[in-house]
Amino acid sequence: MTRTLAAALALSITGTLLTGCSDQGAVKPDVAKSDPAKPAAAPPAAAAPGPATSPSESASAPPVPLVSSRGDSVPGIPPVPEGAGVGSTGLSWKTPAGWTEEQPSSPMRRAQYRVPGTAGDGECVVFYFGPGQGGDPISNAHRWADQFTTAAGAPVGDAMTTSTIDVGGLSVFVVEVAGTYKGGMTMTAAPSVPKPGYRLLGAVAPGPDANWYFKLTGPDKTVVAQKDAFLGMVRSLKHGAS
User: Fold this and answer.
1) pTM score
2) Residue 61, CB half-sphere, CA atoms under 13 Å: how many?
3) In whole angstroms, what is the distance from residue 100 CA to residue 112 CA?
């Protein structure tokens, strides 16, 4: 073999080896080579985000506490024990004529009525919290008075009036207060809208195992006109089912 032919042969072998090593590491293991006869596949679409979950919807989130009409947290009230406040441990009364019975809007309400009036309808609610709950009459009277202010925004304080009436041996505490009504306890943090020219008639009656609380609120003229009806309902109270 001549020197020229040997040199040419060596150059040919070297070129072949370089060509075989030129793709080492150039193609990623998970990427297929494209076929020029087919259009390139579109990249996979990103997964759509799911609906946002609020803290109250989370299984691990704490329950929403009861709050006052001013947005202040208040202690939660435990559920009424099964069988309490019904039958022989209940309290019964006669519904005044013209009042419309409604579905109670919370478990704390044993009864709820729409009370008609020319100045606007009022609402009467009967609360029962179970043995050992709800507080004494005078504490509730002050709590109800705290839900009112004067026209100037000052606390009503001792402007409320109280009395006690005997109902078949039951001593029923009655309270009356008027002014701008700020509202009572709610299940949300939204504050109540102040309502000027409102009045409240309340009564705390001893049941067989716990106190019952009667609360009529509404426009001043409506509550004044319905006062006799409210007191008539109170005077019809008796222990046990009706």
Assistant:
1) 0.67
2) 9
3) 8
